[in-house]
Amino acid sequence: MELSQEITSILLDAEAKALASVYKNDVNVVPVSSVKVVENEIWLINYFFDKTLYNIQQNPNVALTFWKGLKGYQIKAETKYITEGNKFKKATDWISEIHPNRIVKGLLVLDTVDVFDISIDNKRI
């Protein structure tokens, strides 16, 4: 599913972003910081994932929620977790420029399945 320019813009400039994962009855929600959109994929950098990584290895379905002011979206996505290869190299190069002291443990790539508007009228896109 292709993301609109508005959704991408709010995602990249969001005041807050939270990633939800679930496995069995264990729901986990964490804040995320380093986010990039590359060829309609959403890239999230793993610096600290623990329960999140375990959950996505068991169940690749996640929800990413983000907002700026009263405008926001929830993206439901399927994930791939990458620790080597071209995408991982691009991700580590990007992070070394903006956060040179951080260690990239992995790259979480989100492929959008559905988008929901969580603004005041809360309609499905």
Descriptive report:
With 125 residues, this protein is of the alpha+beta class. Helix content is 23%, strand content 45%. A seven-stranded antiparallel β-sheet has the order 2-1-5-6-7-4-3. A hairpin with a 2-residue loop joins strand 1 (16-23) and strand 2 (26-31). The radius of gyration is 14 Å and the shape is globular.
The total beta strand count reads 7
- The Cα radius of gyration reads 14 Å
Order of helices and strands: HEEEEHEEHE
Oligomer: single chain
> Helix amount, in percent?
10-25%
Specify the structural class. alpha+beta
Distance between the termini: 11 Å
Main β sheet profile: 7 strands, antiparallel
Instruction: Enumerate the strands of the largest sheet in spatial order, edge to edge or round the barrel.
Output: 2-1-5-6-7-4-3
Low-pLDDT stretches are: none
Number of helices, counting only DSSP H or I runs of 4 residues or more: 3
Amount of beta strand: 35-45%
What does the overall shape look like?
globular
Secondary-structure blueprint of this entry?
Layout: H1 5-12, E1 16-23, E2 26-31, E3 35-38, E4 41-46, H2 51-58, E5 61-68, E6 71-82, H3 86-98, E7 106-117
Antiparallel strand pairs: 1-2, 1-5, 3-4, 4-7, 5-6, 6-7
